[in-house]
Amino acid sequence: MWISLLERSFHGDGRSERGKMTTSYECVLCDREMRRFTTRGKCSYCGKEEETDYICPNGHYICQDCRVAGAEEIIKKTCRATKERDPVRLAVTLMRHPAVQMHGLEHHYLVACILLAVMRNSTKFSVTDSSFEEAVRRSRRLPLGSCGSMGVCGGAAGAGIALSIATGATFTSDGERALCMTVVSRALDAIARIGGPRCCKASVLATLKVAAGLIGENFKVQIPISNWEGKCEFQKYNEKECLREVCPYFRRTE
Amino acid sequence: MPVLQENRVTDMKWRLLDYEEQDPRMNLAIDEAILRLRREEDLPDTLRLWRNPSAVVLGCGDDMDLEINLEACQKLGAVVARRASGGSTMYHDLGSLNFSIIISEKPFELPRNLPDAYRILYNGVVTALRAVGVEAALDEYGQNVTVGEKRISEAAQYFLYDTLLFHGAILVDTNIKAIESVLRRRKSALTTIREQLGYAPDLNALKSTLVKSFRAALGIEFLTGELTESERETARRLYDIKYKTEKWTRGREDPASLKDVLIEVYVAYPPTAKCNEIIARVERVVGDLQRSIEMRVWMRRKGLDGKGIPPGVLVTQGLKRASKESIVPAIIVNSEIAFEKRVPSEDELKAALVKELGREGRRVSGIHP
Asked: Does B323 reach chain A within 8 Å, measured CB to CB?
């Protein structure tokens, strides 16, 4: 659940107003305290420029629309607009958004949309806005928990979906079809090696690493990818199920 | 002993409340009322000493049918009640002396490690028992006092925001045979002060010893006080809507609010202009209606399953749905999402609230996140 009580409870009889309205907010992207400041700012997600209300000292601003967006909307909007070429950086930015939960179906299309975005940004691929719609549509066919119920992690399948859309693969294709299946099988292998219970964050990061390598190899493009091993910032939301030291992304210093 | 003035005391001066009612469920309601108002009205930290007539007191999560032999309870005339705190089912009678400590964590600076905190609080009981000649010691969890292998006191706790209710029973001259007959799953052996000493100490003398021991153990002063009118009123309300109901005692259904209607506004973090407009509009309408409506504002934040929700605050199914489905902003009236992603007019809001106020059985239960 993604909620926190704003420190206000109003009894309606005018008798008491408990506490005060919170006026200090932490930046979703860097945790620094945001301050109320009006200027022209660019949204760190969708890139839209508008008059800011809260902005952090690192210049992060989230526009009014992106602040109320659901997971699908924020992922599609951001991936359509971004110039980012590093899939892990883009994934972490999106996973920090409050609409993206710790685990869940959104990670299936998160992988697909991120890969489409970075493939488009590498200039070798023709990816249109409708590609993202198609990626979400296909990803939604995989049910929640498909890793356990079908042996196919939705994140890994998301990589296959992205390559299928970018290359135009179908069931009658040869090399393109093989590539889609290869990326999924290698990603599944990497995810399976991490162990369980599932962690959608680890599965996304493992898949992106496999996919970036395979895309680079096959299309002779450079996909820069950050190393997120030992840097997980989401483990605090997953205390009960976190694999801790077993997971390559676990942050040991916390 | 000085008498508490206006029920407001400085740090480290607690109110001593020697107060009990005849109905065990009302006694539990009083504990919760003190807890709620400790925070809301800045009342003092409190040590309450009280007794219940024959009663079986379930922990907040206990299954009544698994824990209690209802037939034996009826035969014994024991009232079945459920408390707000966790822990195992307990039996009370006039041979048990109960204590309730209600403190704000802030001035007292309790250790964050809860067993350590309970150990500090429970020390008063251990010292008092030793003072009357019982070789008592705290168990490793700091939540039971034992004599050898047998328990002589058990306690449980409940947090509401940063306010703690730590309450327990000391078995002075409790009918242990009754415990064996009414509790189905009692595992630990029990003993009483009477069993240990061969006689039951005078109750008032024991209370005095207990107060002295708490004073020494916690380094605090006590001022004799009484329940405030607002605590009495809240206790009555809690009794009516929670403690005397089957929904709570059998069904574990906890009211999400003490008011008739709970309106929750679920907004972005930080709130957008639209969110602020909604908050302001709902506040205006709730204020205009001058009825029993509680308004809560929630923000969508990073976190999972309860992270960020203050302890003891219950959430509704409607809020859970808005959160899960990312419906921001949303206005939830008694657990139903009434308005999604738009700013309703004041008339629309009024109509939704008036309709809810006029509906039978409108109370909404909450869930622990």
From this structure: yes
Given this model, what pLDDT does residue B114 score?
A: 66
- Residue B2 inside a domain? The answer is no
Task: Return the CATH number at B338.
Answer: 3.40.30.10
Which residues are registered as beta bridge partners of A3? B300
pLDDT digits (tens, 9 = 90+) for B319-356: 889 988 889 999 999 999 999 999 999 999 999 998 88
Strands B137-138 and B336-340: unpaired
Q: Which residues contact B345 (CB under 8 A, 6 or more apart)?
A: none
Please write the tens of the pLDDT for every residue from A88-128.
999 999 999 999 989 999 999 999 999 999 999 998 888 99
Q: pTM for the complete prediction?
A: 0.84
Domain boundaries, given as residue ranges, for chain A? 21-68, 69-246
The answer to whether residue B319 is domain-embedded is yes
Do B200 and B298 fall into the same domain? Answer: no
Distance from CA of B28 to the nearest CA of A (A): 24
In order, the DSSP letters of B43-74 are PPPEEEEE--SSEEEE-TT--HHHHB-HHHHH
The answer on pLDDT for A7 being more than 60 is no
Percent of chain A topping pLDDT 70: 91
CATH of the domain at B237: 3.30.930.10
> What gap in Å lies between CA B208 and CA B194, rounded to an integer?
18
Say if residue B140 is in the same domain as residue B236. yes
What range does the domain containing B227 cover? 13-253
- pLDDT per position as a tens digit, A164-182: 999 999 999 999 999 999 9
Which residues of chain B have a CB within 8 Å of the CB of A5?
296-299, 308-310, 313
Q: Which of A12, A54, A236 lies closest to B270 in CB terms?
A: A54
Long-range contacts of range A46-50, CB-CB < 8 Å, 24 or more positions apart?
Answer: A46/A77, A46/A78, A46/A81, A47/A81, A47/A82
Q: Are residues B246 and B180 part of one domain? A: yes
Determine, yes or no, domain membership for B153. yes
Contact (Cβ atoms closer than 8 angstroms) between residue B145 and residue B122: yes
Out of B253, B287, B305, a domain closes at B253
How many domains does the structure of chain B reveal?
Answer: 2
Interface list for chain A against chain B, based on CB atoms closer than 8 Å: 1-6, 8-14, 16, 18, 25, 28, 34, 53-54, 64, 67-71, 96, 98-99, 101-102, 236-238
Interface residue B237 vs chain A (CB under 8 A): no
Rounded CA gap, A182 and A212, in Å?
Answer: 13
Q: What is the pLDDT of residue B315?
A: 82
pLDDT score, position B293: 87
Q: At which of B210, B228, B253 does a domain end?
A: B253
Any domain includes B7: no
Task: Report whether pLDDT(A83) > 60.
Answer: yes
The verdict on B241 and B262 lying in the same domain is no
On whether the CB atoms of residues A209 and A228 are closer than 8 A, the answer is: no
Q: How confident is the model at residue A61 (pLDDT cuts 50, 70, 90)?
A: very high
